[in-house]
Amino acid sequence: MEELHRNYIAGEWTEGEAIPNVNPSNTDDVVGHFARATKADAERAIAAAKAAFHGWSRSGIQQRHDILKAASDEIMARRQEIGRQLAREEGKTLADGIAETMRAAQIFDFFAGEALRLSGEILPSTRPGIEVNITREAVGVVGIITPWNFPIAIPAWKIAPALCYGNTVVFKPADLVPASSWTIVDILVRAGLPKGVLNLVMGKGSVVGQVLLDSPDIRALTFTGSVGTGGKVAEASVKVMRKFQLEMGGKNPLVVLDDADLKTAVEVAANGGYFQTGQRCTASSRVIVTAGIHDKFVAALTERIKGIVVDDALKEGTHVGPVVDQSQLDQDEKYIKIAREEGGKLAFGGERVKRGTPGFYLQPALFTETTPDMRINREEVFGPVVSTIRVKDYDEALAVANDTPFGLSAGICTTSLKYATDFKRNSEAGMVMVNLPTAGVDYHVPFGGRKGSSYGPREQGRYASEFFTTVKTAYTLP
Ligand code: NAD
User: Fold this and answer.
1) Could you give the percent of the chain with pLDDT greater than 90?
2) How many angstroms is it from 147 CA to the middle of ligand 1?
3) SS3 per residue for 189-230
């Protein structure tokens, strides 16, 4: 029997019914057993966070810095082991698991520093003799709900700023990947967080997550996940008049122009579309190619994809690991079928493949000759499935790129300053990449999208303070 990993509520590791966390590269391999919180557990966690808020929001910035820094140091020191656990539970390659773990450490380090840089403004009043102070204060109990595709980075970029600015937290990770979240909480607890400041409630969204959504004591809710669940978060949050932030799906375009460097464009498309099994909200799933380079580009991309090794995430030489679970695999296969039925030409892949271990292996799929109105170009698949759309020129490419309900990330491959500049100005996405994959971002600058992809203030970097603090304006007549 694997070690039982418990929930952490009100400063105690609590008992509970546990379920296995299964490795998608090898379904015979159990990463560990993880407790499932009940409705009552979630309610206790919220009460504990509420009780701890007064003390933590008034704690010294040195204490907050030291705890966040200690967490960063431990995560960085254990990156190989934690990265391996991440790759084992989620199915991204070992290199990606370690890189994501390092990212989490960097995020904790960044917000450790931010704790020391809290500031406000002092302004003169329009009424002589009066002073105006503008300060930022903690919001209260923050609910954190995260998806499965970045099991350690997304929890880190929500937990670190929440604690940095003096909020207390109830954290519900994705039920598919609880190990990385459990590890972060264990590290933060040992780094010295006072009781009740951070509570971990693992389990089903519809049970545990729903308690967070419905509680008026959760004063801010930060969510990353699907559009469907995001809608529920929004609706529930409006009912209790709380602050909320949503990061959701994408159907990110990559434009390839006639003047692009072919090698760069192929690498950017292969990385953005297929790496991490295409399971990135910023993945480029629509590649919009101008007529002059189209055939050359498709031929070169097809060759490139043939070289992608799909295998066990922990095996040396693997470029792309398995799909995360059976239901995601079903979704990927459903969209491959839909794309075929809609008239897309399957240029490569799309087949389930067997490897040495029982896992959810899918050959990367490339569709060509698709049109912007097809479902494959309008709905998020969230798998290693890319389609190309042929257009006549830049203007049509830009129009097609923006013709989507989403607006997270968008990319262009070109050697023309004119088109690169125009695309940066006119793309309707929150993040724009020139000659770089649509996925792959820094942690010290804002992250987020527009239209149906995101709602509320940006995450990460200094912009995180917009969500995790509330502004106070004080007037003084000395
Ligand atoms: P999901 O919406 O199914 O689940 C996300 C989280 O919400 C999980 O923790 C889940 O348990 C919880 N949840 C589900 N139902 C709930 C309910 N009724 N009440 C409260 N919580 C509930 O999403 P997923 O499948 O885990 O993640 C994949 C999605 O996440 C994709 O659409 C992807 O694009 C998106 N994503 C977006 C970003 C971004 O920053 N924009 C980043 C990563 C992933």
Assistant:
1) 99
2) 4
3) HHCCCCCCCEEECCCCHHHHHHHHHHCCCEEEEEEECCHHHH
Return the structure tokens found at 197: 């400041």
Contact 257, 412 (CB under 8 A): yes
pLDDT tens track for 204-213: 999 999 999 9
Please enumerate in sequence order all residues whose Cβ is within 8 A of that of 343, keeping only pairs 6 or more positions apart, or say none: 369, 370, 371, 374
Q: Which residue has its alpha carbon closest to ligand 1 atom 40?
A: 247
224 touches ligand 1 (CB under 6 Å): yes
What is the per-residue pLDDT for 3? 77
pTM exceeding 0.90: yes
Backbone angles phi, psi at 45, to 5 degrees: -65, -40
For CATH 3.40.309.10, list the domain ranges present in the chain: 253-434
| pLDDT tops 90 at residue 266 | yes
Predicted confidence (pLDDT) per residue in 230-249, tens digit: 999 999 999 999 999 999 99
| Binding site membership of 408 for ligand 1 (Cβ less than 6 Å) | yes
Helix, strand counts (H, E) of the chain:
14, 21
**Catalytic residues, which ones?**
247, 281
253-434 sits in which CATH class?
Answer: alpha beta
- Asked whether 281 lines ligand 1 (CB < 6 A), one says yes
CATH for the 4-248+453-476 domain, from 3.40.190.10, 3.40.430.10, 3.20.20.450, 3.40.605.10: 3.40.605.10
Q: What residue ranges of the chain are covered by domains with CATH 3.40.605.10?
A: 4-248+453-476
Instruction: Write down the mean pLDDT value for the chain.
Output: 97
